[in-house]
Amino acid sequence: MRSFGSEIWFGRCFMARTLRVKYIASEIHAFLFIFMWVLYFLFAQPLMNGPSGFLFVILFIFDLPISVIAFGVMFTSTEKGPLAAVLWGVLGTLWWFAIGFVVDAGIRKYRAYDIVGTEPSRDDSESSHGRGLEIWIAASVALVLAAGSVAWEWHGRQGHFESGEIGNFAFTPEGKSIVVVRSQRGSSRLEKVALNSGTSAPLGNALSCMASSLTFSPDGARLAFACENEASGLSSILIMDADGSNLHPLFSANSKDYDFAPHFASGGTEIYFARLQSFIKDAARGAAPPRRWDIYSARVDGIEAHRLTDRHFEEFDVSFSGDGRKFALTSNITSGAQLHLYALDGSGNDETTIRPIVPNGARTPIIANVSLDADGRSIYFLAASDGKKGFDYDIYREDLASNDVEKFTTANGYSTDLAVSSDGKTAAFLRWTSRWGSLPNLSRLYTIDLATKRVTALNVTGRGNLISN
After folding, report:
1. Structure confidence by residue, pLDDT tens digits, 131-163
2. Whole-number Cα distances in Å, 341 to 43, 133, 147, 353
3. How far is C-alpha 174 from the chain's CA centre?
4. What is the pTM of this model?
5. Residue 392 in 3-state DSSP?
6. With 0-12 CB in 10 A as exposed, 13-18 as middle and 19+ as buried, what is 87?
7. What DSSP string describes 317-341?
8. Which residues does residue 24 pair with via DSSP β-bridges, in sequence order?
9. How far apart are CA 313 and CA 424, in angstroms?
């Protein structure tokens, strides 16, 4: 039978090997917080909805109310967001340390009474030899949870994460494929997607600028687009062959102009585009400088450029008709949205103002993504109307001669980036959703047969993917 002294000695040795929850818990929090941001930056997905989502949920729930305040600041303030994120990590780690401290005290008390029946000592200095094991356990737990978070968001039969957010697209002239732009951290990449299968393939290499306003030449041999450099804020027109080769700028000389919204003329030897001269990038603080632009034309070799209008437009939502004879601008003013139609076969100064009437529309009409059909006789657009969960951005078409408006979708939710094929048979758009009550931050690509009004989700797959939104 053991003596009382040997029992105390055994109890102390047993307690010396007890791992301290206060250190393990705080280190798990620190590792989880680091892993969450690593996954966020690595995959460039939304914090709540990407591979970092599972870790975010754990930290958000167990750090209440710290996480609520910190995330609220990050969600609403660009300047204070990084500081709020750091404070969330520090205060959350201290909070888990405090919880672990309470747990440690309970464990010591229970084991001391269980072994010797006396009050426990608060001195746990003898357990310092277990620090390496504690760190290893904390890192292992956090790593397993991070791996689970990645597995939770794993998409597709081929087991890949798609990288980059789809933000722009255009139909090929034959209407059987669509070229999409995937953007990520100031760079972008073009992918050609087959409409019948969703299979994608990259066009050329990644671009160190943000591509937009894709347009094909009438024969489908060339593709032009605007590309904005994040550092300088300047935008230039780039042209490539339809297979992604022979990428080059429209104008070889360095320019301080901001060129955007290209469109091939009907013959394919000229290209229209919008130009804002003497562009000045917005300062970090203060009012933005005035921006006024006009329509220009140039030969596809970039040797000559001529200004076609002299109106100094300010609205930037511009769309050309398929034949290149007309272009439309959308202006959302206090009294509601207006469409301004201009002809390019003269001075470009002939203006027609259109106010589409949308059934059950918003009190102040909201219209976006106007697309002129090939002959410029009708327009397609997205317009807001009252829905069950707020505004629905449905697709409409207006005949410019009769002003008759036809509705193509119902309860479309929040939708953007409408594009119509050159033959007027198919349209494509993005439909946005959200998780956990956030603003819409997940998009999915849809197509609609304009004859039958049938909407179909286009599941983009294949080796061309960078990220699914």
Report:
1. 788 889 999 999 999 888 877 765 433 333 445
2. 42, 72, 54, 6
3. 29
4. 0.63
5. strand
6. middle
7. -EEE-TTSSEEEEEEEETTEEEEEE
8. none
9. 28
